[in-house]
Inverse folding.
DNA sequence: ATAATTCCTCTAGCGACTAGAGGTTCAAGA
DNA sequence: TCTTGAACCTCTAGTCGCTAGAGGAATTAT
């Protein structure tokens, strides 16, 4: 049996976060001591490790809740959740790439040299110089 | 002079958001009518447009606050803020690319076919299969 | 004059935590 | 066995960048 602190060190999830997860019904302690302290089994540790990993992958707690509630035999849904998230990530990469291009344009609006004419602030404010919508 | 609704339509920033920006001291109405309604000048509109654009670029309100407080002649700092943000965005793209690779691995852990052995949930939970840290 | 629309302030909620107060329990050493 | 100190407990409130809603006042159009 692990204490909450041991669980925290083993998974990398902070102690208050573990309690927060319990508060929203994502995990539960397997037992409590006489003095009301949480004790976790190996299964509890694995479950939290799973959640940690999924969070690192960027899934929302809601998506994770769906994931852990799944019948392990029913992997269609698991697949769906993973694929939905994959396309989300791809969309985000695309958006960030466009931002990157625009920021490069803005930074290049000024070469940083002294006594130089620089319109970087104007470039920041001006939508019309962008060739894409946002 | 523009009403808050006109400002909202012109910039694409929602009315409650404009009031929120005022609440945190980012903008101010140039005047109030007898009946206490906000009225904005063209300069106010431009300022909000600037903020909108910078938000779209992913800058935090704090970064924007720094940006609008700058002396326009001092473009070193402006440059710095833009470049810092640019490298932030590049780091985020890198991270998302790694997540993409891992999610692809996870999705491929199951071909979705019926009656097939699928370890997608295990793949989700298992850090050891990743070749990178997170 | 009336009706429709926009506006006002204020409070509370979202996700996913994080920080702190104030008090209790546990584990290890003397 | 006692004592210390670390770890634990619950509870509330704060973070960021909004968004939603209540309940009422002002403006605009007919």
């Amino acid at each position: 049996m692990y204490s909450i602190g041991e669980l925290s060190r083993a998974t990398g999830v902070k102690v208050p976060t573990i309690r927060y997860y319990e508060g929203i019904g994502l995990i539960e302690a397997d037992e409590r001591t006489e003095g009301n302290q949480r004790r976790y089994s190996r299964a509890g540790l694995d479950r939290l490790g799973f959640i940690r990993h999924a969070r690192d992958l960027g899934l929302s707690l809601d998506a994770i809740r769906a994931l852990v509630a799944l019948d392990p035999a029913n992997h269609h849904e698991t697949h769906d959740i993973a694929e939905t998230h994959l396309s989300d990530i791809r969309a985000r990469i695309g958006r960030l790439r466009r931002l990157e291009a625009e920021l490069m344009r803005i930074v290049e609006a000024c070469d940083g040299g002294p006594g130089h004419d620089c319109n970087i602030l104007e470039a920041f404010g001006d939508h019309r110089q962008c060739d894409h919508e946002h």
